[in-house]
Amino acid sequence: DFTNNDAATMAGYTVTQATEGTFTMGSGLGGTALLDCNSGTQHQGVQVQKLGPCFTPAANKDIWFEAQFKVVDTAITPQLFAGLAGVDSTLVPSGDLDAANTEYIGFGIETTKAGVMSFYEAKATAELSDSLGSTGTLVEATYIRVGFKVVGITGINCYLNGAEQTLTNVVASGIPVTDIMTPSFVCQTDSTTDPIMHLDWYRVVQLR
């Protein structure tokens, strides 16, 4: 939750503009952060990564990630990511996730996907993904809760609003095990509109 004093200046995050974009406090109930594309030019926007990456899948070290967000203006035109990723200043270059340069696990919308999320994992430049279909389609100004569990290096599950989703392509062999990952969020525009991600909260836990 974005309610403490540090959050007032967004201390503790690396904020990178894709030409434009801002990361600021919102006025939502309980505290929110706003990732605002601040642009109507395709592929422009903002990405945010928490300082101090510390999550890497390992045997018997399960990871849980969960976040809640909504997109406004409009929900069908963002390029988006919410999950864990290695440090990378361009996670979504030219509208597609950057599997060539970083490892990640999370929820995303790449260019031309019209608000339909997929669940992704990338390991050693190889990306696997499953479309989340109508269940994973963003609705304008409506919060969605996303989550995943990485079971050591032997299993991976993803959830939307608490309900487990069927994964076909995303499998245990694709779990990244090299990069040290950090909570990462991206909101860029895929059209001439200016989508804004309202990030309500997120949490990550790993067994030690």
Explain briefly what this protein structure is.
The protein is mainly β.
Please give a structural write-up.
With 208 residues, the protein is an all-beta fold. The chain has no helices and 14 strands. The chain has strands at residues 13-18, 22-25, 33-36, 45-50, 63-72, 78-86, 104-109, 118-123, 126-131, 144-151, 155-160, 163-165, 181-189, 196-206. A 7-stranded antiparallel sheet has the order 1-4-13-6-7-8-9, with no helix packed on it.
Radius of gyration: 15 Å
Give the terminus-to-terminus CA distance.
24 Å
The helix fraction, in percent, is under 10%
Secondary-structure element string: EEEEEEEEEEEEEE
SS-derived structural category: mainly beta
Low-confidence stretches: none
Beta fraction of the residues? over 45%
Looking at the structure, what is the overall shape?
globular
Mean pLDDT metric: 93
Biggest beta-sheet profile:
7 strands, antiparallel
Strand order, biggest sheet? 1-4-13-6-7-8-9
Would you count the extended β strands for me?
14
Number of helices: 0
